[in-house]
Specification:
With about 290 residues, this protein is of the alpha/beta class. The chain has 2 domains: about 220 residues, Metallo-beta-lactamase, Chain A, CATH 3.60.15.10; about 60 residues, no CATH class. It has 9 helices and 15 strands. The strands form 3 sheets. The chain has a 7-stranded mixed β-sheet with strand order 1-2-3-4-5-6-7. Strands 8-9-10-11-12 form a 5-stranded mixed β-sheet, covered by helices on one side. Strand 8 and strand 9 form a beta hairpin. Helix 6 packs antiparallel against helix 7 and helix 8 crosses helix 9. It binds zinc ion (2 copies). One zinc ion binds next to loops.
């Protein structure tokens, strides 16, 4: 799939081979590339901008996951939220935040070294008409970028195919991610079109339905996790049980990835007094508070 002009001076390169949807917004004679992606996309993106006769090109990151930023090369400036900047520039911070691993050598997931950010931004900032919106939860500083009627939503919302495949949607903080779905829903009600990181571009009722699907996926995971907790276990045990219930591959990297959202849920429930964490011989054991 190639480039699609979705609006005046707004283009999208559809996600492929693990890369997300990449947006290009042309404003002030500058091409702003939202989430360059990974692999050979840097070349594709720069060729496209050159054919458009534009010399200046800036990159904007919704968040610092490798699939969204590994191809962040050849840009005059790179913009990211302050808390994503840390993750973009420090592979250690990024890997700890994502998997709780310092050196994930040999992992099946692609990795990236430092991606330098030139411009740290904050929610509410505006970059030549492109507005940074708070949609954290998927990552601590996740940001959706609104330009005219389009919202480049990154991984604050997933397409339905991805949702069905992963079953345990990755969010550093699942409950904060739920709140960000409310933010996106409001934007849809305001007439905005959602360009998700992965999946089809949606607006109107279709977009509302996608927000709802994302909510339901999280809700289902919460209910199933609550069932799984009938038998106490460590974070890893509980995660693996849920993954097996969903028929997911329990390879080391996937277990580590899935423990991150599960951990966020367990600690949140603990703060509400719903579950307990007890230190035992086998590790920190989680069970329902009696
Ligand atoms: Zn992501
Ligand atoms: Zn992604």
């Amino acid at each position: 799939m190639g480039w699609e002009e979705i609006g005046n001076n707004v283009l999208v390169l559809r996600g492929e081979k693990g890369s997300p949807n990449t947006g290009i917004v042309v404003a002030n004679g500058i091409a702003f590339v939202i989430d360059p992606g990974m692999g050979d996309r840097a070349k594709k993106i720069h060729e496209k901008i050159t054919t458009m006769g534009i010399a200046r090109r800036f990159a904007i990151l919704t968040h610092a996951h490798v699939d969204h930023m590994a191809a962040c090369k050849g840009f005059e400036r790179v913009f990211a939220h302050r808390w994503e900047t840390i993750l973009a520039e420090s592979a250690t911070c990024r890997n700890v935040c994502e998997f709780n691993v310092v050196d994930p050598k040999g992992f099946k997931f692609i990795t990236a070294d430092s991606v330098p950010v030139t411009d740290e931004i904050w929610w509410g900032d505006e970059i030549f008409g492109i507005v940074a919106g708070d949609t954290h939860g998927h990552t601590p500083g996740h940001t959706a970028f609104t330009y005219k009627e389009f919202v480049f939503a990154g991984d604050a919302i997933f397409g339905d195919r991805l949702l069905e495949r992963v079953r345990i949607p990755f969010h550093t903080d699942v409950f904060e991610a739920m709140q960000s779905l409310d933010v996106l829903e409001k934007l849809v009600h305001d007439g905005k079109t959602i360009v998700p990181g992965h999946g089809s571009i949606v607006s109107g009722e279709e977009a509302i339905a996608l927000v709802q699907k994302n909510r339901e996926a999280i809700q289902r995971m919460l209910e199933d996790l609550w069932q799984v907790l009938e038998t106490p276990g460590t974070l890893e045990e509980i995660t693996i049980r849920l993954m097996e219930q969903y028929g997911l591959k329990t390879d080391l990297e996937f277990v580590l990835l899935d423990t991150t959202p599960i951990r966020s849920i367990l600690w949140h429930w603990r703060s509400e007094g719903k579950v307990r964490a007890t230190v035992a011989k086998e590790g920190i054991v989680w069970d329902k508070a009696k």
